[in-house]
Amino acid sequence: MKKIILFADPGIDDSIAIMYALLNPDIQVLAIVSSYGNTSKEQATDNIAYLLKLAGREDIPIIGGTNSPSSGEIPTYYPEIHGQEGLGPIRPPESFSGELTNFSELYKIIKDQEDITIVDVGRNTSLASLHLLGENIVEEIKEFYIMGGAFMVPGNVTPSAEANFYGDPIASQVVIRDLNNLYIVPLNVSNKAIITMDQIRYVQQMSDNPLIEIMDEVMEYYIEAYKKLVPGINGAPLHDVVTLSLMVNPEMGQSIRREVNILTTGIGKGTSIADFRPSSKPAEKNINIFLDLDYSKFVEDFINVMGKADGRPRKILTPD
Prior knowledge:
alpha/beta
């Protein structure tokens, strides 16, 4: 069982990742930190609360994260990809509003629990704040998984930068510089984690869970947005879901241990750099970059987790 604190900014992809975490019998969600990113923090909070209500998991606290990047810049949101409210065409009821727990509650959770994994699939501002404001946080956490970066592949915001690292490169640099037992899931891997509508409909045949019932509308919107970005694509990459999937199934990917730096200013803002030359040495700290993914195993894991019924995981073969 992986006990996790999930940092997110839903966003369609983050929302599917929250669903995956809640439905995976190998994951125990201790808290979800809501921050700006794909949407404002306020909208992200409502989206998280809506998903928790659908799942019957309103016992999970929503922690109030950051509102803007370390630079103080006004955040850029992406309604053309995630919709105005962050869930594509889905809107939480107008009277529905998520309640936030103080950020300081994270330190109590960390103190009271052992072997915690932190998973950050959004901008790294809140995670950097958790580290900078707390004592010995690195020693308290078993491992960190973050979705971010692009190594030797194009970025998705600029020619070289991925959205999470670009959104707050100062925070990302702090996280990578100071944390240990760190696992980075960049676009090299997450771009391969494509889920199609056929696979979503197959999952829906296996489960009547309220979370799964809204997946087709959400994913149809997301896939249509991706078709404009990547002509010819037959689905959409679930960047944040594959981060959680690799956390549970690290053998599903291939990683390399290297030092990483993030450019914080200029034309290269948000660019992630590592030395992959044959003569380069492993990082002194345990910093690992996933560079490859067994796609068929990812799809199988996704379908098995999301398609479980009656609270029991079902072994389901991947559809052709």
